[in-house]
Here is the input.
Amino acid sequence: MRLSEFRIRNFRSIIDSGWNTLPADNITALIGQNESGKTSVLEALYSFREGEISEDVLRSDMTFPEVSCSYRIDGNEPFDLVDVSRLPEGVLSSIKKSGVLRLTRKWLPDMTSQIIISGDQISEIFDKIEKEEVSLTEATRSATEKILDESGLLTDEIERLEKSAAYLDHEISRISKKQSKLAKLLKRASDPVKQAMLKREAEEAEGEYGELSAKIKAEELLLAEKRDKLAGNYFLREYGVKCLKVLEDLENTSPRLEKAYRELADVEDNLALMTGDKEIRAGEHKLYEAKENYIGISRRMESLREMAGVSVRIVKHLAEGKGIIEAEKDAEKEFAACNNLFSREETGEAFFSCIPRHEFFEDFSSLLPNRIDLNDIFENNTKVEGYKAVKNFLIIAGLDPKFFKQTNNRILKQKIENLNNEVTVDFQEYWRQNIGNDNKIKIHFELEHYDISHPEKKGRPYLEFWIKDEHERLYPKQRSRGVRWFLSFYLELKAFAKENNSTERLLLIDEPGLSLHARAQEDVLKVFEDIKDQVQIIYTTHSPHLIDHNKLYRLLAVQRSRQNGEQSETLIYDASHLHSATSDTLSPISSLMGTGFDRQQFTRQTRNVIVEDICSFYYLSALCKMQGGNQGISFLPANGPAGVTTLVNLLIGWGFDFSVLLFDSPENQDILNMLHSQLEGFEPGNPDSRIILIQKTEAPEDLFSTLDFKKHIIKKRTGIAESNSGYIRDNAISRPLLASCFARSAESGEFTPASFDEETRHNLEELFARVGERIWNRGETV
Amino acid sequence: MPGSKKSNKGSGYSPPGQAKAANQEIMASLRYAELIQKALMPSDQLLKRLLGEHFIFFMPKEVISGDFYWVTQKDLQTYIVAADCTGHGVPGALMSILGISFLNEIVKSGRTDRAGRILNRIREKIMEALHQTGNFDESKDGMDLALCIINRDRTSMQFAGANNPVYIVRNETLIEIKADKMPVGIDAMFEQPFTAHDIRIVKNDRVYLFSDGYPDQFGGPAGKKFKYRPFKQLLLDIHQKDMQEQHDILKETMISWMGDNEQVDDILIMGFTIT
Here is the structure.
């Protein structure tokens, strides 16, 4: 797994770096002027892993830092440290499918931070889960409200029916009495008229009785139905009400928890400022109370959350028509499964444990000191000079700090003596420069105690270091900075290898080999090349010697935006946008062109061909070599067309033979005129003999057919209806990057003349024939 | 009318008068487009001047065509093209206009006179114009094309072909110069350069350029394709006749072959004699 992209927000001068892509071959160089923000980038990446920041990284607008890192994985990454059974469905497969693990650390106002897993697809999964939970709660609310409304109506209806039944009962009883009375009167009556009247009345009462009886029966049925319905809603109603109450409590508890947390933080802050014993005791008591309060509310909150989670699910199942026992069982099961899943933050934390370690290597802490107090080691005083280097040394030597607490001085001395013969650094591994004949040194250390000359530390133990080769024994600071840097870097690598053999690692190095000799700096670069398969490296530099001119894709240019003066923000340009960076930012590359002269044997007496820029240099050098050896031709890049005349002057002054190769661009017309005047003075009457103008070709890229340009230079399928150089210009592509990549590929043998089509081959043959002819005409044979 | 009844089905009812008017309007547009397309192709006068004895058998499937022919002269070299754009009708015609305009631009700019490079450049222009980058969801339009460049003294000819070959009949023998198996436009493979063939030509050579419309036409008693072998044999049989007669035989043969079958694609055959 390797860091493939990063994005930094609100970190010192960086407002938003945007996503920056790192090269796949594990080495990235950050270039830029002082104060541009290079070190901030390293610090941000370090803080991402460690989680700690100091207040001085905060911006004045009090926005809080956020650092996102994407790690490229190979799809078969085991993620042993992640409990995959707790990942929401789709998370792991999405990561494996995309081949990218993206994590973001956000810092909060209390300077703590949280890690979350990010990325569009992953976010969608968590959004869906959160949305489902919210909609479940909403569904519970609406189901409960609905059932309560329905129950209210039912209760009213039942009440009305009950009243009606009572009234009807009363009426029945009245009619019944009336019937008895009429029966008695009829028995007694002798008058036929009266008898007939009573009979009619009795019949009417009979009819009324029948009607009322039927009505009562109907209403009783309705009442029973309503009562059944109300009873059937009982559990849904009861759980709905209970659930709403829990949700309300949860909502109310959340601000109480926040308040308790703020109170706790305030009490802690106040306690730190207290001085008197009594005051401190009172403060501690308050702290205890505040903690208890916070813990109590936290627990209450947790319990409410669980109750709400189960309740909403019970209501859901009851609303679906399940019985109470089944609903409770299913709800608990569902909640347990859901509660077991990692949240966005927990998922982030889980994957965070799998990412490479980010280590910071800086000169102050990481260079081996002459001496260090053992107390600083015991107390982990990381701020003391050389702390990290000494820790590394002790790890390599297999010494635990407790070892020095050994009381028997003789045993201690003997063990140290034995170790001193074992800890040998083989510089041959990393540094090509000779220390001594065999390039091997030993690190000697001794346990000493301060004497009277250090009264404030008298009697305290300290460790003293020497670096010893076959000639002499010197304190580290007496050795050259180069030896010290390499030694310390060696210690760093070895200690890490010993401690974390299986852990992947990203090494952040601020200004490696600062103030080293140029050759030594190139050795640093070689070390990086040697270890890049085991350790990913991001380093800052101002030095052209720490940039591989064939691998400009490894660069990130860091600079301040200009528009806002001191408040300007840090901008980062990746390799494909280097052309947008200022020339000051890119000065190491410009210098590199100069430093390259030495490697290109600039001091050659003959066959020097001046070309207008580094791109022409890359293409022509590579192509010339490919066309059948470099034929002794040395291409010299000027710093843009305007620099051509300067180089011409230089070579005339040195008395070296040269030609000038220019492409037929409108900008070069002025240079051509200037060259004519310049060379007319040097070689009167024959100024053209040194100029090779490649007609109808605006730039070296136009030497390639469009097909070869697409296939070998931009490596992209697209229709190019204009010239190749026009395409580069219109699409704002970095020319130097393309050119250096081409040169590197050519160097690695990726191309032969047969790789190109007939059009390109024809152009190249013509060009090199002209170069050869020009040199030959001046008495040279190519 | 059964036809009109069918046409109303499924798309809502249109009054017969309205549909007729719309149809007339479309046909008028197509006729006008045909005029424009004809104007873009070389005039009989130009063909006569540059090719001498020749014929063009041009039978579009619809009013306008995806096949086109094009000739021009630059630096005393004669450029001859027979092309077949993807599709026929309106889409084919739009592509043909793109093709003609790119040919004019590239040949007249004088940047190259190599047949292969000309096809390379047309392909780039088509890819750029149609935003073709090789993604599966984008347009795959392009054209098959045969390009001949006859040198100034008419002793040699360059040929580059995108799927379409050229036939030369000499001494009763048909010589086929094969084309590269790729279209002028995006293809499944990363773009490869088109091959320019340098061919010696002699007086009275008969040269034929064509689209695949003729050999691919269905017909005959079994309703099968005409195919290339009979097509070659036909050219061998008739090559000694004068050009107009060859044209008429090709036309009659095709009409008789087609019978009641529908014409499947535009048909184009160009023939000329090296003088």
The two ends of chain B are 57 Å apart (CA to CA). The first strand of chain B starts at residue 54 and ends at 59.
